[in-house]
Design goal:
Elements (H helix, E strand, L loop, with lengths): L1 H29 L7 H12 L8 E3 L3 E2 L17 E4 L4 E4 L2 E11 L2 E4 L5 E10 L4 E4 L12 E5 L17 E4 L2 E5 L6 E3 L10 E3 L12 E4 L19 E9 L2 E6 L22 E4 L4 E5 L12 E4 L6 E3 L2 E3 L14 E2 L5 E3 L5
Parallel strand pairs: 1-3, 2-4, 3-5, 4-6, 5-7, 6-8, 7-9, 7-10, 8-11, 9-18, 10-19, 11-20, 18-21
Antiparallel strand pairs: 12-17, 13-16, 14-15, 14-17, 15-16, 22-23
Amino acid sequence: MKKVYLHLRAVLIIVAASLTINAYTQMMDDCSAHPDDEDLHSEHCAVFALVPVDEATHIAVSNGSWFDPATWNVFSVPGINAQVVIDSNITVTYDNVSDVDINWVRVIGTLNFSATVNSKLKVLTIVVDPVGHLNIGTAATPILSTVNANIIFSNRGAIDISNDPYEFGKGLISHGFTVINGAYKKTYCAITKNLVAGASSIKLGEVATGWKVGDQIVIPGTYGTYGGDFEGNTLFHDEELTITSISGKVIHFTNNATGGTTLLYEHKFPTGYGLRLYVANITRNVTFESEDYKTISFDRRAHVMLMHNIAQYVSYAAFKGLGRTDKNILVTDPIVDAFGNQVSGGENV
């Protein structure tokens, strides 16, 4: 028994030492990029300082499911506020729905979302390393139309600029290989004729492949005035609808603005220009969204940044309530001093 205990202890010491060495090596690698550009170098370091390997609570050491304790170095599934590293040469599959609020995920190896079962990840920040792979469906195996893959970025208040002076955090920041493929659906279809206010159906000029009951569709307004506004939809008269039935090329709906089953406004073909009128489908089965985005302020939203790598691909995914820039006012980029303190800017990035 003593021999077994000593052997186990030796293994644990070797593993711990290996992780410590890897953490140091990783830290050095994190700040080795862009040596000839001081600004890019500082920003690169700042991104990866948000997800330091030596502060991880869970490191994936075996290929397998995220929800299998054997996948992780601590033999437990990541819990609330976990700080997760998918290590190099390791592939983890995210294949369940969870409301556990993860602090951050760093992908050095591969993180795959299942294409065949519903999945939901709630997290504050995801960072993909230059060699990392994040796959949420692929071109060969997109997320099946019968399931959903949802990433919710947590609402934890304002960004802590003492820890994140460049305000990169809260969202997905990928320097690696991020591939996102939701289920195919026709993104928009032509309408056969003018629509009158009070119309209760829409006749399409083509088959709406992939459209389903419950999908959200938008008819763009064909009216414009300088006296209207976006909030009350009096500027253009766009209409957002929910599909209630599909019969061939005929769509019936509920009007999201009124709860009724008819259009509020007239939608006419522009005359003299050879233009057509379309209806767009904005529902996707892969979604990224800021938690509480309909009620929180701009500066508390998440964002998505696919950077420094052209081998990134997004298809048939929805991004809801993302982006922290208020386009009504001037952008103010963060100014950070040599000590890593934000000294000015950052109010609208």
